[in-house]
């Protein structure tokens, strides 16, 4: 099967001319091949062979292979326009037809989406008029550059809103709108490293992969901490690991909602363990990765607070998740004192550079400003409550149907037994890990959508099990015995 | 004057309630205050005091100040909607009026823009219909994730186009569409570091600031190399510095167009110097920062080639510069063999993570695909030629008017004596450094716009000099004696 993902084939002699792949297929359907490809990849994932594979090339040398290179064959090649295209309008017509079909695909994919924590329900028609402008918030949000086509006045409005949400005063915070949750984590952890240059990074093993990527990028020592079945950081293990590294400061990533299980680390307990292990407040730095729940938690009744009144250094959240946005974006808020260690002047921009990216998407602040202004705290509270209600509904119905499932307190991420059919997984775009899958209940996930999903799952499940080829998976090691409904534990 | 940029004032007691700044000003004009603020900052820059300043706070302690915090007072605060807003439509109406005024400001700012290398002339109306979708190319462009709302088929089409432009075969390259030129540089230099972990980073002192940011982020030793008056890397100095660090591999940033002077480093000479200094090809890695010129150079007659047939490891280019795009974006192309050292698997996404950002803007590939398909190589060649012609026109007219100016071969960046009036600088959004300013002639910069600019400059200049307060600046140390027209050198 892997033969179909061959990167070692002969060099395409047409590389400097027209490609071999026709770019105007009559029956254009990019999804067909992609589905096959994904199928292959998924199988590899299932078989735990997804890592770069070693294969012999023609010379018998072992070379690494990169999976999925066959995307070239489904890609929409760019070709040279004919000289008379402008006259005939052929090119424009072709592109319009590609885009129209693509829109149809996107609509379908959007309708059957459950697995990723993206709110797909938004209406930014009012902002379409601004797509004509190249809006770039170069450098620092608080310092103008000479480039006039920016949206800083909207960006700072958004930042103020988030700083208020997390209880840091206007004059004591710094922040910016990032390109995604990962950039927020990269920035928060970089701040930690600059404040405590020889600090060790601590993160639970269920932290987002960007946290470990940061450690590698920044050449930081990193200690992985165990997790509880809920997905929360195991504070007992955390303290033990702190004690065996007492000589070095601690930079701690705290998950305000883990990626897979939506588990919220106990921030207060983390701080307590640091104190118990003898770390004074100037010897640790906490970054809170609030990708999804950073915005939800403040609206959950009785939830512990993410607040700068506690000993934390930075919080990041994604903008395309709970708020919803056409493209990924995020928010990073930190204490003003921390960012000074990072900043340096760049006269060229007449702007200080304390961001990671420098050139920054000026449209993202407009989307966020628009949504926050429309919904307000009240609107978000309503949406959060609806999501939690719907998540409980989903979890209860799964369990009723005999499907092992878990829903953490404070969370709208329902973890359950991974469906046995990868076509089904792909159709509903479920995110999977080992034996478990999850659905993240976002504002765009309605009861009626959940019902469709549940009915189809229950129906299909009966089929999968009928032939005796499959049986319910054991998910006890993932979510604990109590939540498992396999033959052994039900 | 600095008193107006006070961050040490009392804490706004309204922080958890309504802000003190009205968010519905009758005479909303965000630019007025901003201009004053920029004025202050510019003066500070001129006086070389732009670095974080030390000032005493109320307790007499010295704290660092961050310039420009007064952005809070011009920001568009987000407030809670009234309960009846949905019924009355007040909120929608308010936001529509803010956006309408903002659009007017953007139009003006776009019309008077000369200083930044952004092509502001684009028409993506056909793509507006896709703004309804949350398009995210999670992870690797060549490997599908389970999230179906993506644009990989367009992204890979764009990447193929660039790989062909820089002469790397389809099956031998890897790349992705980045959020901006900086991300391309961060990725290219990270690749270099992963391939040669104890390598030293070499970059000319006129390299983009993101290169030095990368060195700091990645904890790499960095050697700054001198430049010639043109802005090109001084290869004599480069070789000398290589020879004094012979024991460690070299990671070299080569500028395909410096930020300020548009100088193109001599790639062939850089490679020659590495070889002369005894560095075999497995002991150096070259990243080409082609932010602007990476896309222009291939279309300039007799220009040296940026090509993977030479001993280079990666090339990056910005998408919002010569192509033009509503938001910043860029392209990074590298050899497939290099990216393997960086990649790791993330089952959660069913995708490998070799990008920096993970979640990636799926709209940017659509913009690039659309522009490249419409224009093709032929279209870009025409635009590049027009830009170079117009740049020569500008340079010639400046010199005719007695204004010291320089235009590098292969470049459309015209460097000249910094105007004496910061209002003028801001109006035309010129990028300045010390005594020089520049205009980057992009496809959106027409002869008629240049004429307006030149007429106004010449007229104003006469006024500035009339009172004897100012005289032409000496720019010999920036661009060489031959290009200076100050009293001493004219």
TrEMBL record, chains A, B:
Taxonomic superkingdom: Eukaryota
Keywords for this protein: Decarboxylase, Lyase, Pyridoxal phosphate
Any Pfam family hit: Pyridoxal_deC
Cofactor: pyridoxal 5'-phosphate
GO MF, any single term: histidine decarboxylase activity
Enzyme class (EC, first level): lyase
EC numbers: 4.1.1.22
Family of this protein: Belongs to the group II decarboxylase family.
The protein's name in its UniProt record: COMPASS (Complex proteins associated with Set1p) component
Source organism per UniProt: Stylosanthes scabra
């Amino acid at each position: 099967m892997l033969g179909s993902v061959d990167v070692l084939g002969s060099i395409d002699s047409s590389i400097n001319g027209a490609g071999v792949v026709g770019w105007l297929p009559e029956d254009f359907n990019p999804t067909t091949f992609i589905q096959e490809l994904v199928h292959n990849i998924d199988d590899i994932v299932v078989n735990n062979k997804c890592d770069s594979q070693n294969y012999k090339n023609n010379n018998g040398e072992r070379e690494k292979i990169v999976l999925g290179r066959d995307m070239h064959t489904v890609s929409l090649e760019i070709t040279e326009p004919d000289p008379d295209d402008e006259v005939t309008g052929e090119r424009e017509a072709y592109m319009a037809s590609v885009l129209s079909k693509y829109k149809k695909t996107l609509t379908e994919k959007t309708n059957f989406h459950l697995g990723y924590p993206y709110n797909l329900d938004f209406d930014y028609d009012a902002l379409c008029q601004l797509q004509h402008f190249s809006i770039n918030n170069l450098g620092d949000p608080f310092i103008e550059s000479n480039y006039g086509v920016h949206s800083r006045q909207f960006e700072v409005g958004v930042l103020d809103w988030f700083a208020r949400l997390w209880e840091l005063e206007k004059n004591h915070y710094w922040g910016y709108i990032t390109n995604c949750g990962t950039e927020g984590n990269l920035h928060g952890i970089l701040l930690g490293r600059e404040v405590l240059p020889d600090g060790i990074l601590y993160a639970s093993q269920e932290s987002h992969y960007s946290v470990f990527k940061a450690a590698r990028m920044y050449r930081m020592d990193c200690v992985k901490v165990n997790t509880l079945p809920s997905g929360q950081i195991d504070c007992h293990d955390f303290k033990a690991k702190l004690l065996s590294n007492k000589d070095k400061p601690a930079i701690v990533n705290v998950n305000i909602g883990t990626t897979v299980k939506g588990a919220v680390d106990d921030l207060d307990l983390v701080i307590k363990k640091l104190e118990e292990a003898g770390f004074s407040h100037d010897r640790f730095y906490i970054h809170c990765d609030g990708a999804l729940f950073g915005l939800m938690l403040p609206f959950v009744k009785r939830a512990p607070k993410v607040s700068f009144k506690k000993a934390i250094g930075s919080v990041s959240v994604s903008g395309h998740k709970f708020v919803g946005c056409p493209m990924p974006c995020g928010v990073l808020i930190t204490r003003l004192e921390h960012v000074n260690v990072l900043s340096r002047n760049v006269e060229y921009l007449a702007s200080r550079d304390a961001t990671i990216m420098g050139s920054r998407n000026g449209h993202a602040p407009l989307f966020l400003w628009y949504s926050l202004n429309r919904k307000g705290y009240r609107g978000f509270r309503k949406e959060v409550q609806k999501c939690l209600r719907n998540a409980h509904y989903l979890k209860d119905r799964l369990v009723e149907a005999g499907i092992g499932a878990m829903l953490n307190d404070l969370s709208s991420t329902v973890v359950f037994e991974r469906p046995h059919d990868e076509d089904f997984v792909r159709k509903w775009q479920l995110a999977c890990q080992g034996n478990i899958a999850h659905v993240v209940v976002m504002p765009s996930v309605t009861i009626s959508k959940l019902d469709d999903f549940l009915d189809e799952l229950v129906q299909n499940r009966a089929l999968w099990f009928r032939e005796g080829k499959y049986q319910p998976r054991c998910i006890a090691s993932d979510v604990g015995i109590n939540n498992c409904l396999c033959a052994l534990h039900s």
